[in-house]
Task: structure prediction
Amino acid sequence: MLTIHTADLLVSGAPGRSSLPGGAVLVDGREVAAVGPYEELAAAWPTARVRRWPGLLTPGLLNPYGPELLERAYHPDPREAGELGTEPLTGAALAALPMTDARWGASARRGVQRLLAHGTVAVAGELRRPAVVDAVRRAGLSVEERSEDPAGPPRLDPLAGRSLAEAVLTPLLPRAGRPATFTVFDVPDEAALRAEGAARCVATVVEGRLLYRSR
Result:
């Protein structure tokens, strides 16, 4: 099925390309079939389903703290909030927990959902725990290599201390095999995104699949 995703402003992430008001992405299965003004795509593919989003549509983002967030932190279950709180536990607080493979896997699944809610479509760094690797793979995130450990502290927001250009995984371009992977933020422009970070994410799409949508 063909689907057109459109927002108030589209940033392709490609060097030298300006932001496009009323821009849109045509998704054909798992791939980007076209990128351009919504009116042009809608006229060329009139039978395509349309998803309209508020704000800024950008490529999906890479979070550089894969191992730190998913294998060196515990994301509490909501049922544990009264005892453990809601923020990721690290250091002595993590060491005090009886961690099993099953618990690591459940924590990673919750961590991945929090990453998706910040526009993250990939994490960088080697993951070694099988339960964590499985959780990430099943969720659809990719794992990228990194040459050195990033400066800390680890954060869920891939835009913390980084520009959008630095955080983009793959530009949105209609090239053969280019995955339809992008995110949408409820902000008016890149300046607002820099100011507010990725917390205003409203949708994250990975290879054509809507993996996160805010309520």
Summary: The two ends are 24 Å apart (CA to CA).
